[in-house]
Amino acid sequence: MQGNPRFIMCNCTGECPGFKDMNFWRLLNYVRNELESEYAIIHPQLCVDDGDRFWEEILKPGPMYVVGGCDPRMQKKMFRTAFEKKGIDFDKQVIPLDLRSMSTEEALKKVKDAFEGLSKTK
Ligand code: SF4
Q1: Sheet holding 94-98, edge to edge
Q2: Which pLDDT tens digit goes with each residue over 4-47?
Q3: Global pTM?
Q4: Interatomic CA distance for residues 89 and 47, integer angstroms
Q5: Which protein residue has the closest C-alpha to ligand 1 atom 8?
Q6: CA atoms of 63 and 66, how far apart (whole Å)
Q7: Best of 45, 55, 102 to mutate for ligand 1, by most ligand atoms within 8 A of CB?
Q8: Domain boundaries in the chain?
């Protein structure tokens, strides 16, 4: 069973100025409690070695992954190795969202819209 979409927030080590106005915990709790999500988690840096290992651990065929972080093209490029290793097509299973330089409210809205878009395609 593939279940609801998963939400993964990547916050650039927590030091990136692009996320300085965002309350990650509010965002995660909103996704967990208000949206039809399987789970919502935060990772400090998905594009380095332990991020690759994390992807390899959790990726499986079927479920959708909504990923908050940097530019979608950057995400695709940086996660490529891990996805290729697992045989998962990034374009089919990931909704990458650029949440940089947003307030918490703006990020909530963008993530909500992504989840609603996915529920319409079910
Ligand atoms: S994947 Fe993007 S948001 Fe995450 S740490 Fe790397 S550059 Fe930052």
Answers
A1: 39-43, 6-10, 65-69, 94-98
A2: 999 999 999 999 999 999 999 999 999 999 999 999 999 999 99
A3: 0.96
A4: 17
A5: 12
A6: 10
A7: 45
A8: 9-120
The answer to whether residues 42 and 107 touch, using CB atoms and an 8 Å cutoff, is no
Which residue type does 27 have?
L
The separation between CA 44 and the C-alpha centre of its own chain, rounded to angstroms, equals 12
Of the candidates 99, 101, 91, 100, the residue with the CA atom closest to the CA atom of residue 31? 99
**Structure-token pair, residue 113:** 């819209």
Q: Of 8, 27, 49, 70, which is best to mutate to test ligand 1, by the most ligand atoms within 8 angstroms of its C-beta?
A: 70
Burial of 73 (0-12, 13-18, 19+ CB in 10 A): exposed
Nearest residue (CA) to ligand 1, atom 2: 70
